[in-house]
Amino acid sequence: MQCLMRSHIPQLIMVFRDYLRGKYDVELILREEINASGDTELCAYFDGNSPKFAMVQEEAELFLQDPFDERYQQASWENGDTLTVHHHLEKPSLSGYLLAWNSAKFTTFLTALCAIIFAFEWFGYEQQILELFHYPADSSEKNEFWRYISHSLAHLSPLHILFNLSWWWIFAGAIERHFGSFKLIGLFLVAAIMSGMVQNWVSGPAFFGLSGVVYAVMGFVFAVDKFGVTKGTVLPEGFFTMLMVGIAFGFVSPLIGIEMGNSAHISGLIAGLALGFLQAKVR
């Protein structure tokens, strides 16, 4: 058996299976598998020794170029069912984990960097790190260009870094696996610089944390899902509502003694939405 295609969107694989049923009277084997990143994918297998394999493989390539062609949708109505998915949930191998790390190198690097910086803060170097990493506070620091980014790498409490790195790991990792490291690095730089500029303009340079970037990666994922070819089939219902609740909580949190960089959150989200929309239209 050879895997013809795999996708996080089961409906796409099933549509292709139904099309082959009607045209070639062949049956694909569909398996749910967990990849090395822990994501569930539906994989379509076909007998590599079949005399029809070359034709089926060519059809797979054509399908991937335009999976929403009307002929595929019609075939799905005529030949579809949802009862032939096999569960194949094997534990990923070491090579699979290495492949997953290789596809999310910047996500892993930034997660580790933030954790190491916080560890130094925790063991007595907090004042030195905050002085070195804060946003430029006066004209003497404006040419210290690292400060326009470094403010996003320092965190002020265990809960602060836990929340930020959890969301970063999930959504930045997804972006890097699907769009590549350079795309994620560019998004990080734009979000860190833009959220820092806006927050500094509103409240001054006393702010830290990755949350502006985190809102950017979540906004990017939402825009790609909303305006891309999947049209809202990946993210759960209410995802954007969750983002809005998070923004709203930032404005009421001072009432319970929690200060948040609301301006960084909003500007980061706007940057992510804009870049995600552009990415969706490009692809």
Automatic annotation (TrEMBL):
<dbReference type="InterPro" id="IPR022732">
    <property type="entry name" value="Peptidase_S54_GlpG_N"/>
</dbReference>
<dbReference type="Pfam" id="PF12122">
    <property type="entry name" value="Rhomboid_N"/>
</dbReference>
<dbReference type="InterPro" id="IPR022764">
    <property type="entry name" value="Peptidase_S54_rhomboid_dom"/>
</dbReference>
<dbReference type="GO" id="GO:0004252">
    <property type="term" value="F:serine-type endopeptidase activity"/>
</dbReference>
<feature type="transmembrane region" description="Helical">
    <location>
        <begin position="106"/>
        <end position="125"/>
    </location>
</feature>
<dbReference type="Pfam" id="PF01694">
    <property type="entry name" value="Rhomboid"/>
</dbReference>
<feature type="transmembrane region" description="Helical">
    <location>
        <begin position="264"/>
        <end position="282"/>
    </location>
</feature>
<keyword id="KW-0812">Transmembrane</keyword>
<feature type="transmembrane region" description="Helical">
    <location>
        <begin position="145"/>
        <end position="170"/>
    </location>
</feature>
<keyword id="KW-0472">Membrane</keyword>
<dbReference type="InterPro" id="IPR050925">
    <property type="entry name" value="Rhomboid_protease_S54"/>
</dbReference>
<feature type="transmembrane region" description="Helical">
    <location>
        <begin position="182"/>
        <end position="201"/>
    </location>
</feature>
<feature type="transmembrane region" description="Helical">
    <location>
        <begin position="239"/>
        <end position="258"/>
    </location>
</feature>
<comment type="similarity">
    <text>Belongs to the peptidase S54 family.</text>
</comment>
<feature type="transmembrane region" description="Helical">
    <location>
        <begin position="207"/>
        <end position="227"/>
    </location>
</feature>
<protein>
    <submittedName>
        <fullName>Rhomboid family protein</fullName>
        <ecNumber>3.4.21.105</ecNumber>
    </submittedName>
</protein>
<feature type="domain" description="Peptidase S54 rhomboid">
    <location>
        <begin position="143"/>
        <end position="279"/>
    </location>
</feature>
<keyword id="KW-1133">Transmembrane helix</keyword>
<dbReference type="InterPro" id="IPR035952">
    <property type="entry name" value="Rhomboid-like_sf"/>
</dbReference>
<keyword id="KW-0378">Hydrolase</keyword>
<dbReference type="GO" id="GO:0016020">
    <property type="term" value="C:membrane"/>
</dbReference>
<feature type="domain" description="Peptidase S54 GlpG peptidase N-terminal">
    <location>
        <begin position="1"/>
        <end position="84"/>
    </location>
</feature>
